[in-house]
């Protein structure tokens, strides 16, 4: 287990999360999804449309996100709390925890 990142911005968190998903869960994605994740990891698929845009796109690829975000805010927070370290570390380093309500609310 590597040490958590510190002081990263959203773009860096997106890149690290994409790289971690490829490394630790890459075999559960099809070729097109792996290519999209690789583009995120390379920084070539990171959008500038709005706050948290790229991060939300990438979160949709995290196991359990769709179900968690459809449920109550409490269940969404529990999902986030129980993420594996390689998913949670880049998110925590970028301060995503303070935006959970905003992310959850995008889908409600």
Shape: globular
Mean pLDDT figure = 85
Indicate the percent of residues in helices.
Answer: 55-70%
Q: What is the radius of gyration computed over CA atoms, rounded to a whole number of angstroms?
A: 13 Å
Count every beta strand, where a strand is a DSSP E run of 2 or more residues. 0
Q: What structural category characterises the helix and strand content?
A: mainly alpha
N- and C-termini, Cα separation: 35 Å
pLDDT < 50 runs, ≥5 residues? 1-6
- Largest beta-sheet details: none
Number of helices: 7
Strand content is under 5%
| SSE sequence, one letter per element | HHHHHHH
Write the layout of secondary structure elements.
Layout lengths: L9 H16 L5 H12 L10 H7 L5 H6 L2 H9 L3 H9 L6 H7 L2
Helix pairs in contact: 1-2, 1-6, 5-7
Structure overview:
With 108 residues, this protein is an all-alpha fold. 61% of the residues lie in helices and 0% in strands. It contains 7 helices and no strands. The chain has helices at 10-25, 31-42, 53-59, 65-70, 73-81, 85-93, 100-106. The protein is globular and about 30 Å long. The termini are far apart. 26% of the residues are buried. The model is unreliable at 1-6 (pLDDT under 50).
């Amino acid at each position: 287990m590597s040490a958590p990142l510190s002081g990263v911005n959203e773009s860096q968190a997106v890149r690290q999360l994409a790289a971690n998903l490829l490394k630790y869960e890459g075999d559960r994605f099809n070729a097109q999804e792996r290519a999209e994740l690789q583009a995120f990891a390379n920084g070539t698929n990171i959008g500038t449309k709005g706050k948290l845009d790229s991060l939300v796109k990438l979160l949709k690829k995290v196991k359990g996100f769709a179900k968690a975000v459809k449920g109550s805010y409490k269940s969404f927070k529990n999902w986030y709390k129980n993420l594996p370290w390689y998913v949670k570390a880049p998110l925590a380093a970028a301060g995503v925890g303070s935006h959970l309500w905003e992310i959850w609310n995008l889908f409600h």
